C-alpha cells in the first residue's frame, strides 16, 4: 500500500512545476545566466550577450532538468526594482542569488541585498544557491573567497551552496541546476507548497 501511494506521490511530484527565483544586484549576470541555462538544457541557442538588456520586468525560463520541470523567474536588480522581488517570494521553491565575482567593490551591496532576502518570512526554508558568476574573467574570486566576503549570518538551518559559474562559458551550470532539483525534491518547503497548491484545487500547482 505504501509503495502505491509513494509511486503516486512521485508521479504527481514529477508533474509539478518548481519555481526558482533568480535574484542579485544589477549587472550580476542573472539574465545572461538564464539564457545560458536554457541553451544548455534545450540545445537552442540563447540570446547573444549583446542583445541582453537590463531587466525591468520579469523574464521567465522553463527548463526540464532530470525530468523535473523548473520555472525560473529572473527579476531586475537595480535599486529601484528590488522592492518587486518580495512579490514572488511566497510561490518560490528555491532562490538563486547571483553575484558578479569579478567586482569586489559591489560585494557589500550584494551582501546587504542578500541579507534582506534571507530575513523575509515568505522565504522561510527556501533552499539557497549563491553563484559566484563571471569565472571566465581572471579577476573573479572563487566561491570560497566569495563566501568569506559575504560572511553570511542567519543562514540557520537553511540548505545552501556556493557554486562558481560562468554565464558565458557555462562553467558550473549543470552542477547548479542539478543541485537545485535534488534539494527541492527533499525540501519541506516544496512539500508545503505542494499541499497548499492541491488544497487550492486542480491547475494551481
Ligand atoms: N565576462 C562575463 N560577463 C558576464 C557574465 N554574465 C554576464 N556578464 C555580463 O554582465 C553584464 C550584465 O549581465 P546581465 O545578465 O544583464 O545582468 P543582470 O544581473 O540580469 O542585470 P539586471 O537585469 O540589471 O539586474 C552584461 O554585460 C553581460 O554580458 C559572465 O559569466 N562573464
Ligand atoms: Mg537581467
Automatic annotation (TrEMBL):
Pfam families: Arf (PF00025). CDD domains: Arfrp1. GO terms for cellular component: Golgi apparatus. GO terms for biological process: Golgi to plasma membrane protein transport; intracellular protein transport; protein localization to Golgi apparatus. Keywords: ER-Golgi transport, GTP-binding, Hydrolase, Lipoprotein, Magnesium, Metal-binding, Myristate, Nucleotide-binding, Protein transport, Transport. Gene3D superfamilies: P-loop containing nucleotide triphosphate hydrolases. Mg(2+) binds at residues 31, 55. GTP binds at residues 24-31, 77, 133-136. The keyword Signal does not apply. Belongs to the small GTPase superfamily. Arf family. This is Putative small GTPase superfamily, ARF/SAR type, P-loop containing nucleoside triphosphate hydrolase. The lineage of its organism: Eukaryota, Viridiplantae, Streptophyta, Embryophyta, Tracheophyta.
Amino acid at each position: 500500500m505504501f509503495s502505491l501511494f509513494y509511486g503516486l506521490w512521485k508521479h504527481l511530484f514529477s508533474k509539478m512545476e518548481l519555481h526558482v527565483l533568480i535574484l542579485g544586484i544589477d549587472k550580476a549576470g542573472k539574465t545572461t545566466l538564464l539564457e545560458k541555462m536554457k541553451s544548455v538544457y534545450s540545445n537552442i541557442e540563447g540570446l547573444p550577450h549583446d542583445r541582453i538588456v537590463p531587466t525591468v520586468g520579469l523574464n521567465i525560463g522553463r527548463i526540464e532538468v532530470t525530468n523535473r520541470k523548473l520555472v525560473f523567474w529572473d527579476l531586475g536588480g537595480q535599486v529601484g526594482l528590488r522592492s518587486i522581488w518580495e512579490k514572488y517570494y511566497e510561490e518560490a521553491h528555491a532562490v538563486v542569488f547571483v553575484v558578479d565575482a569579478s567586482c569586489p567593490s559591489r560585494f557589500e551591496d550584494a551582501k546587504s541585498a542578500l541579507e534582506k532576502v534571507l530575513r523575509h518570512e515568505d522565504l522561510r526554508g527556501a533552499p539557497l544557491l549563491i553563484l559566484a558568476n563571471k569565472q571566465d574573467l581572471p579577476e573573479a574570486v572563487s566561491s570560497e573567497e566569495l563566501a568569506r566576503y559575504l560572511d553570511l549570518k542567519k543562514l540557520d538551518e537553511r540548505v545552501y551552496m556556493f557554486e562558481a559559474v560562468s554565464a558565458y562559458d557555462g562553467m558550473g551550470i549543470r552542477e547548479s541546476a542539478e543541485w537545485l532539483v535534488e534539494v527541492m525534491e527533499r525540501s519541506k518547503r516544496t512539500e508545503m507548497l505542494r499541499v497548499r497548491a492541491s488544497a487550492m484545487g486542480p491547475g494551481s500547482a
